[in-house]
Design goal:
- It is a single chain.
- With 430 residues, the protein is of the alpha/beta class.
- The chain has three domains: 3-25 and 237-364, 3-Layer(aba) Sandwich (Rossmann fold); 29-230, Nitrogenase molybdenum iron protein domain (Rossmann fold, 3-Layer(aba) Sandwich); 396-429, no CATH class.
- 45% of the residues lie in helices and 15% in strands.
- It has 17 helices and 14 strands.
- Strands 1-11-10-9-12-13 form a six-stranded parallel sheet, sandwiched between helices. A five-stranded parallel sheet has the order 6-5-4-7-8, sandwiched between helices.
- The radius of gyration is 25 Å and the shape is globular.
- The chain starts with a strand and ends with a helix.
Length: 430
Amino acid sequence: MPVRISYKQKNFRDLFQQIIQKKRVQFKSVDLEVKKIIANVIKNGDDSLVRFAKQYDHFKLSKKNIKFSKSEINNSVKKCRTKTISALKLAAKRIKDFHKRQFPKNSYYKDSLGIRLGMQWNPIDSVGVYVPGGSASYPSSVLMNVIPAKVAGVQRIAMAVPTPQGEINPLVLAAAHILGIEEIYRIGGAQAIAAFAYGTKSIDPVDKIVGPGNVYVSAAKRQVFGTVGIDMLAGPSEILIVADKNNNADWIAIDLLSQAEHDAQSQSILITDSTDFLEQVIGAIKKNLEKLPRKNIAAASWGVNGVAILVKNIDQSLPLINALAPEHLELCISNPEKMAKKVKNAGAIFLGNFTPEAVGDYMAGPNHVLPTSRSSRFSSGLNVLDFLTRSSLVKCDKKSLNKIGPKIIELADCEGLTAHAFSVMYRIKD
């Protein structure tokens, strides 16, 4: 049964803190195994990838077919429905249009002392995109991870896609084809992350790894961070819906289930100011579960991680939102824009009754790779800036260095860094 708490309970704050502190994913449980996998890939390269494909994905991989051929990619495209390809192309266009607006401009100016200062942006050279396989094989993840990298100007984008029993969703390859990605490897798990980070004979290492995955993938990304950059440590998906009584209970219920069907560890939370509406939604969840092919997963998620919170009024939900810092936030209330301005912590905010989270997952344009596990308190969703580096620019001439030099020498001397002081002093003296 989902957790239910009410503002009327004396221990409401304690119960709410328990919700915040609940851990839905434990990296420690797989850290040692992941460490061994990474070490094996570093030592044995392609041989390890072949071995782990058999062990974890239960199919026979050879060194010759680690990479998908162009003909395999083209044949996968032919297997897809025309209207699905059309939908992917429209989504790609919208995602690209949105992300192009994120691109920063180089800047350069002269300050009051005559020193020229600025910054310039450059794309990362290479990126490895991890795309989940098996039951969680999503072509939309290809679009969301690849497009901002392409907009940023990344020259080399490689993809890793696990193929359980040797099978792959053809739409994943079709999405890659639409975006012009040809370097695609049929590997998954921690071993794919290791291959991207350290390289093998068949796979050149990359500078940054992005993309969601299971606990093994997240643990591996954490362990290789520093050798390469990573986007984030994505945990199970989550949604928080704030809804008043002027809503359709079925709509809210199915939105909650839209996250629950991802994974048994996903979390769906409802906040409302109406006891009657809360009961209607819980009833609607039971009814709508029966319509879902993934009802067992959704039921497990809602039963173990689901939460229903009754507040005195909708305004009371604001501090709860910011404390929960959800991945997805739906504001199904009368004036969602007003509340959205006060929300500090949320990966993406969906405004009004006609903006289900699924719009953002597929077609709106903003990225669906979002911070989970309350990390929206200090991070943001995947964007163009994640694929750029920024360099500062500084230029002094003799006149401006003479003006600022004595202060630099003073600070260098007080820190005991004599060569620093001399490097300025020599120039001023000359």
